[in-house]
Amino acid sequence: MLKKTKVDDETATGQAGIKKKSKVPGVMITQFMEELPEGKTTPDFTRKPIALTIQEGKFAYFKAIVVGDPTPTVTWSRANGEIIFHTDVCQQKYDPTSNEHTLEFPKVAPEDADTYKCYATNEYGRAVCTVILNVIEVGFSKTKELQKIQGEDATEFRKRLKTRNPDGTREEKTMDANEKVWEILLSAEKKDYERICAEYGITDFRGMLKKLTEMKKEREEEIAQFISHIRTLKPVEVKDDDCATIELDMDLLDSGSKIFLYKDGVMVPFSKEEGEGMKHNLKQVGKKYVFTIKNLSKDDAGLYSVDVEGVNVFSTDFKVPEVDFAVKIQEVKAEEREDALFQCVLTAPMNEINWYGKSALLTNNEKHEIIVSEDKLIHKLIVRDCLPLDGGIYAAVAGIKSCNAWLVVEVEKDPAKKGKKAARKTTIAGAGNDEELLRIAKEQQERYQKEMEEKAQLAKKAQEEKELAAAAVRAKQKAEAEAKAAAKAEAKAAAKAKRAAAGKDGAVRKTKKKVAGAGADGASGATGGVVGVGAGSAAGGAAGATGGAAGATGGSGAAGSLAGAAGGGAGGAAGVGGRDGSGAAGGAGGNEGGDVEGDSEVESDEDSFEDSDEDIEGEGGGAKGREGAKEGGEKGDLGGEGEEGGEKGEGGEKGGERRKRARAGPLVPDTVIDPGVHFHAGLSDCKAIIGEAAELECKVSSEECVGIWYKDGAEIQASESLTISKEGCFHRLKIHKVTEENAGKYKFEADGRKTEAEIAVEDPPRFDKEELEAFKAPVTIKKGHKATYKLSYIGREPIKVQWYLEGEELSSEGNINIETSDGTSRLLMMKLQHKDSGEIKIKLKNVFGTIEAVSQLNVLDKPTPPMGPLEIVEASSSVIDFKWRPPKDSGGCKIQNYILERQQVGRNTWKKVGPIGPEAKYRDSDVDHGRRYCYRIRVETEMGTSEMMETEDIQAGTKAYPAPPSAPKVASAFKDCINLTWSPPADTGGTSILGYNLEKRKKGSNLWGQVNPPNEIIRGKGFAVKDVVEGMEYEFRVSAINDSGAGEFSTPSEFVFARDPKKPPGKVLDLKVTDSTYTTLSLSWNKPKDIKGEEDEAKGYFVEIRPAENTDWDRCNSNAITMTTYTVKGMKSMAMYWVRVIATNDGGEGVPQELDNYILAMPPPVRPRFTDAKIKSFMIVRAGNSARFTINFEASPWPEVTWLKDGVPVSKKVTISNAEGTSQLLIPSAERSDTGIYTIIVKNIVGQETISIEIRVTDEPKPPGPVDLDENVPGTVTISWTASPDEKRDDRLHYMVTKRDSVKRSWNTIADRIFNNKFTACNIMPGREYQFRVYAKNDMGSSKPSESAKWLIPAKKEKFTVKMPESKACDLQCPPKFLVPLKMHTAPQGYECYMSCAVKGDPTPHVTWLRNNISLNTNTNYFISNTCGVCSMLILRVGTKDTGEYKIVAENALGRAESSTKLTVRE
Question: Judging by DSSP bridges, how do beta strands 1148-1149 and 1136-1145 pair with one another?
Fold first, then answer.
């Protein structure tokens, strides 16, 4: 059977999940982090829900009050299944005035009985508590009967749904509305239940849920036979390509299982190949199945069902709204970083439509914003911050209608901004036609309202016609009923007249008949009374019974008639009092009883009273009551046999025999003394606990009324244990101390009126109050000791006893022992540790309830060490002040003291500082400046002292030197004095600055000399240096001094001459522009003239620019430059600037020199020119591939680039990409129609340049047709063939002919580049078999060949003679000869040496290696080889002993050869 996996509620990922105790018993708190921020708390309950036991049909609710910061969110769940939130089933509410969260059940039902959990959650934790709801079922319920009938209907409906053909397909018939709604509900989500029920007119929501649960269970069992798992079930979704899809993921047990698709119960054929032209298609990708409906129309609306092997798996209702686009979305061109707006207008209101971007569904997020107008007609999509990647096709889908448009994002063309992120723009592309859209939307809204009014009028007219037809049917039925009643009355009158005119003894018979009639009518009255009971009225039943008793006594006719009439009236009134009209049956019986056929006619018109304690619906009983009344009335004329009708009217279907009715308890007169007495409030069932008091109370309408109490039918009187009291209209029965004997059914009867209730005696577990108070007192013990808890209890056995520690159940194992005897439970915990501290709880449970008691266990232990890190408050030369964190666990005790020890770093001894109190801080004033100290800290409690925590080293008054001041600045300079100033350092070292030291140095020297005397520091931030030599150049530096000493020196000042101030320089000469680009400008100038006494020599220059639209000059260089050239950067392309240069020296700045004219930020004008060395003029592209052509050029200013195809602009399909100095043409997927001559035009203000390229889009040609052979001239063959189908489309197509004969057996080309369909082959020799192939060729390649038949010309055979020349034997023998001799070798000592040579000879010569004429062939220190005449020798490690002459000798039978060399070894 398929089952959903139940996922337990888990702690969020990354959360600590620390369990905490709550002050409210039964509440578990989970904290998500170890430490909470200040002021924040986890959720908790101040009032938790209370368990509830209630009768079905009543109003039930749970209440909870929660606290926490931030305010927690409250949710509810149940153990079995999910809570269905519906106004008729269950509602969750919150009252802000009382802060109460409630879960309400308007009419609680047995299926609501369960264990419920209430969760309170915020970001720091979660609190949860559990509560039980018990529902008491009543004996008979109309709702149950209806549900039973509906259950039978559900079974019948499932049987109808499962009616299949032998091959698993459904019967060919259209589904009705009832079948549709259940199939939709089986596959719908729970959130859609209410909408579906409202749409199909289902009012009994709870009954629907029960029926649906049974159907789902049955369907899951059926599905499990063919499917192992089923997952994603997506309803019909309309796409932007005019199709709709249904998606589902399922694992089939048999991959060959048949899958069927139905629409409204009728099978729909579908294909599994996308290429086929069917409307419905199934595509399978792995375990995903996608049904596609193409070419959507209104006829496609309906219920679609997917079946597997005859079992319904999934159903979805596809609705097609009557809507279209009045205004479709239009193409939008947006600049980069600009917003783009698409908008459309619908013909009918819709809450939302689907937006697609590049075939992906879009939702509201930071990138996309979807807006709907108030009238639901105008829909907008805003694409924020458009980038090139956002370009593409966007679509809007409303119902089955769709429209799409392009979003074109224009990239910034400015080369200066290439590679930089453009600035965000606030404009919106595509906006501006809002007024037009509003006008169209208003017209559509008026048209839509007019259509709706017309439809409403048609519907109203149809309803009126339907009502008129129903009224006519009712009038006809009424007339027929009246005619039938009149005929019956006439027949009855005729029978009565016939009896009145009887024989002579008529008077005697009449007297007897009165008596008999009284008895019969009395019995009939009893029948009415009994029927009244069945119909739901106790009062009517009592009155009817009175008439029956009187009639049965057989008294006088008048008495019987009177009692019968009274019983009949009461019965009739009681019948009228029934809730649903079923009481009419009782009335019928009563009236028959009151019909007296004698001379006396008694009419009774008494009121009936409703017992307020009874709340019973009796539709079924009413039906039987009517049947009994009818039978009883008919048999009333037969005297005592009317009893049978009464029996049947009461609900039993036995009859036909005369029976005596036994009455339970003593006979109580049922005569109604005061018909006006009735109950305002009846008795109510109650539960009583043994040993406690119980009370029953009712209220009647009269204070003078006296009543009697009964228990189980027996009258009861007041006693010591029972008190009966009356207070005004209230009557009470109080049991002082309830026992088991007090359980039963209690009845109060007053003046013929009755009310009943039942006392259910319960014996839940209970604790002794004194022992409970002692148990609640916290228990504190030391580590290693034992703790004992003992508690007595009473209650009905069996009682389940459970002990808990911090929410975890304990059992007898290890150091825990649990003993439970009669009425007592004892918990013994031995060898306790501090971790065992926590909440101790005992829980008792039996069939009547549960009770808990909570105590606290505190196990004392030594504290843990204090915690770091250490926080240093102050560390000066005279004091060290620091803090630390208290221990993580104080062992359950209060901290008495912290014990400190101190050690000076570098020494071995520790000095005890002593207890310092419970505060985690210490201030040590007994320190030496600059010394480092280390501390040990312990915690002291009543349980002992903790382990120590050792701190890091702390320095007292660290020597913090000041940072360097700023570089000295020259305030003024003269030949005998230089005035300096500087700024103090930003870091003073923690103390105040005492003064400064100043040093100077001559230019070219490495020695610094102090300016101020060593014992006289400079107190100010400036100084006048007088110890200077005129004409000399100096630089200065300064250092700051604090308590720790002098810090580092500053950076040196600029060099300054000891001389009187200079005059400012004059204007620069020959200022001109040497080069320019779109962003830079290069300048050059000459030095200004040096006029003694007026204008001194310039030391540097400043360059300033000013945009033409501004009046302020901007300085390009912050520091003066010494060069007479400068390049200005960061200019705006094609902008106008004014430029000037200012010379400066120690005397100040000179007069600025400006350029005569403004400057444009652009390169020097250059006519467009193509820079590629070789440019193709012809390109061949295979059809379907992309065609890309790039042109490089140079031009200034930036040119305008245009591409043409055959003299006209290129189509939108072609992508043009322009960048600095290059342009690219791209055809994404080339077609033959893209063939043509493409021309690029590069144009600027200087001129223009063009170049063309022919792009031919083609494909491999198709082969030519059949090949024919013909011999017109002997020795030749004419080959002809049918043209290739591509010949007309490709003017460059030609043919190639190849030949193969029976001798060479290979194909040879005999002709190529043939532009007609015929060729004559020559040199055809008789006797050979020929075959020809013809290929079609173009620029892309050649086609497959078309092959001819074989061609053969017979030849006369002649005798063939072969003469073989005589051959001479070849002698290859030769003496040995060295082809490659040995070479001289010089090798380092310790390295390897390799010698080789090549020798030939036949027969193969024998080779011998010699060193100093001694053979080496047998020496293992040398590796000698001879392969195919190549002789080699290898010496692995060369030594001095290897020095000498090496010789190789080759010998065979024909001679001998030698080759020698020398080996020299280097050290």
Answer: antiparallel
Average of per-residue pLDDT values in the chain? 80
- Alpha-carbon distance 1262 to 1385, whole Å? 71
With a cut of 60, say whether residue 646 has pLDDT above it. no
* Distance separating the N- and C-terminal Cα atoms of the chain: 92
Mean pLDDT of 1414-1432: 88
Between the alpha carbon of residue 1372 and those of residues 185, 1052, 1400, 1454, the distances in Å are 103, 96, 11, 12
Checking DSSP bridges between strand 339-346 and strand 378-383, what pairing results, if any? antiparallel
* Nearest-angstrom CA–CA distance, 1289 and 745: 106
| pLDDT value, residue 1198 | 82
**Cα torsion angle, 685, 686, 690, 691, sign:** negative
Rounded to an integer, what distance in angstroms lies between the CA atom of residue 1412 and that of residue 1410? 6
CA angle 85, 86, 91 (to 5 degrees): 60
Across the range 490-514, mean pLDDT stands at 61
Gap between the Cα atoms of 538 and 752, Å rounded? 10
Phi (first) and psi of residue 843, to 5 degrees: -130, 125
- Average pLDDT (967-977) is 90
CB 406 within 8 A of CB 393: yes
Cα gap 1100→1095, rounded to integer Å? 14
Please report the pLDDT score of residue 1333 as a whole number.
Answer: 92
978 strand-pairing partners: 973, 1025
pTM beyond cutoff 0.85: no
Closest-CA residue to 1150 (of 1217, 1098, 1213): 1098
* pLDDT 10s digits, 111-120: 889 999 999 9
The residue count of the chain comes to 1467
Answer whether 278's CB lies under 8 Å from 268's CB. Answer: no
Q: Which residues of 685-718 are buried (b: 16+ CB within 10 A; e: fewer)?
A: eeebbbeeebebbbebbeeebebbbbbeeeeeee
Q: On the CB side of 1324, how many CA atoms lie within 13 Å of its CA?
A: 24
Measured distance CA(1175)–CA(1203) in Å, rounded: 16
Let me know the angle formed at the C-alpha of 500 by 499 and 501, rounded to the nearest 5 degrees: 90
Q: What are 321's two structure tokens?
A: 């709204």
Whether the per-residue pLDDT at 272 is higher than 70: the answer is: yes
Rounded to whole angstroms, how far apart are CA atoms 362 and 368? 7
CA distance 783 to 801: 27
Pairwise CA distance, residues 73 & 92, whole Å: 12
Cβ–Cβ < 8 Å for 240, 402: yes
Q: What average pLDDT does the segment 529-542 reach?
A: 33
Residues forming beta bridges with residue 116, ordered by sequence position:
78, 131
List, for residues 578-595, the tens digit of each pLDDT value.
Answer: 333 333 333 333 333 333
d(CA 116, CA 101): 14
| Residue partners of 1324: CB distance under 8 A and separation at least 6 | 1271, 1275, 1276, 1277, 1330, 1351, 1353
Q: Which residue has the higher pLDDT, 6 or 925?
A: 925
Q: What is the dihedral of CA 20, 22, 26, 29, to 10 degrees?
A: -40
Which among 949, 909, 905 is positioned nearest to 927, based on CA atoms? 905
The pLDDT tens digits of the residues spanning 1178-1219 come to 888 888 899 998 999 988 888 899 999 999 999 988 999 998
Structure tokens at 1293: 């197509």
Which residues face 998 on adjacent strands? 1038
Q: Which residue in the block uniquely carries the two structure tokens 């089939």?
A: 252
**Max intra-chain CA distance, the chain:** 185
What distance in Å separates the CA atoms of residue 878 and residue 926, rounded to the nearest whole number?
7
Whether the pLDDT of residue 68 is over 90: the answer is yes
The H or E element spanning position 182 is: helix 177-187
Q: Which of 26, 20, 83, 72 is nearest to 49 (CA)?
A: 26
